[in-house]
Amino acid sequence: MSDIISLTAAELGAAIKAGETSSEEATAAYLGRIDAVDDQIGAFLHVGRESALEQARAVDARIAAGEELGPLAGVPVAHKDVFSTKDMPTTAASKILEGWRPPYDATVTARLREAGMVILGKTNMDEFAMGSSTENSAYQVTRNPWDTGRIPGGSSGGSSAAVAAFEAPLATGTDTGGSIRQPAAVCGLVGAKPTYGGSSRYGMIAFASSLDTPGPFARNVLDAALLHEAFSGHDPHDSTSIDAPVPPVVEAARSGEIEGLRVGVVKELDSDGFQAGVRQRFHESLELLESLGAKIVEVSCPSFDAALSAYYLIAPSECSSNLARFDAMRYGLRVGDDGTRSAEEVMSLTRAQGFGPEVKRRIMLGTYALSSGYYDAYYGSAQQVRTLIKRDFDAAFGSVDVLVSPTTPTTAFPIGERTEDPMAMYLADLCTIPTNLAGNAALSVPCGLAPEDNLPVGLQIMAPALADDRTYRVAAAVERALADRDGALLARSPYAVGA
């Protein structure tokens, strides 16, 4: 079992295609790993054991019949519980959708199936993707495999923990303000936020529609690129989907050539207030990039200082609108419907019981920001800041090819440390939010361990819209150089196979 689980996704796909192992054998190995460790990690809300084995057998039959399949055919994947799956519950980690089975698959789900991938189950998350620690789930707390007393990041913490604990070789996530990159950073993984519109939102339960972006988690850059390519591309079901080819991310991940690349260091995202070990590894990464032939340039993006404030007006406003659909009238939880109460009373009772504290907080913030007399002062002003942030990015990309920063200001913090301080929690996304507001591409790649706590640090790489391949090119260069210098980062995790 450990031999299969230690393979990269690319290696596993090649082994399945060559007949050296089968998808059924690989799937059974990962299901066994989930049985062995998920009680300690809490990554999965639902494990589709029988359906996964059935999917695997179907792929094996297609391969045996000589059908030409893609590079990830037969490879298992963990799926964030925000994507609709008609054969498994989809709850967005909320009681208001407990047990709900959608009548259709999300586009991302459908494309995983088309690629021949085997969906192991649905992973835990912050309720409706609102959070940075996965402590806001209505069902369970997920733990970081590096230190089970610490958070795995959020909102896609179940996905990041599953991959870091070797419960899956790959996982899907969504990134609204950093919900892929931040958990990837604190779990020592590669996590990418594609260009907004580059991956379909159809069938993905909405948090903030102008920000939400599906993306991949993996233990290395090439695997992330393969998954990115597998589920991305134009989708006529999504009106915000970009009708353009998927950037050549796999080719870039295999290249890693950065000689002459201009790398901009965002002054506003390199703060003395960040954890010392995070800054140390970040500056070592800059030296590493320079040694590989990149040109390092400091750039200023002054509007980034207002990004956090703008985001926490725009995102709650959109969530206030999107979550109005959970009204107890059509599907999901229904409380107090005893024949004596009005529809309004049932709706109020259901939403009070079905939504958790963080979701209620954001709905109230958003409703206030959109209310008569306050719209221009709050939501309207935040959208103006968003325009300024996009202009800062455009100006910076006029002189450099990519921008870099730490992915998150600290390593993984202890479970419970920030639950009573929402502002401290929100600061976890300080570096990632600007890219969501602009709609650009970004990726987090491991860049070492912080000396003070021996926990993973992430390097964030940002690129213009539809230049996702640049992020993979730089990430591949960093990954190879650090592997030569330090060895495999995940080999040091207590949950690494063979550790």
From TrEMBL:
Any one GO cellular component localisation term in the record: glutamyl-tRNA(Gln) amidotransferase complex
Function: Allows the formation of correctly charged Gln-tRNA(Gln) through the transamidation of misacylated Glu-tRNA(Gln) in organisms which lack glutaminyl-tRNA synthetase. The reaction takes place in the presence of glutamine and ATP through an activated gamma-phospho-Glu-tRNA(Gln).
Subunit and interaction comment: Heterotrimer of A, B and C subunits.
One Pfam family hit: Amidase
Biological process according to GO: translation
Catalyzed reactions per annotation: L-glutamyl-tRNA(Gln) + L-glutamine + ATP + H2O = L-glutaminyl-tRNA(Gln) + L-glutamate + ADP + phosphate + H(+)
Protein name per the record: Glutamyl-tRNA(Gln) amidotransferase subunit A
Main enzyme class: ligase
Organism: Nocardiopsis algeriensis
InterPro entries cross-referenced by the UniProt entry: Amidase, Amidase_CS, Amidase_dom, AS_sf, GatA
Keywords: ATP-binding, Ligase, Nucleotide-binding, Protein biosynthesis, Transferase
Catalytic machinery residues: K80 (charge relay system), S155 (charge relay system), S179 (acyl-ester intermediate)
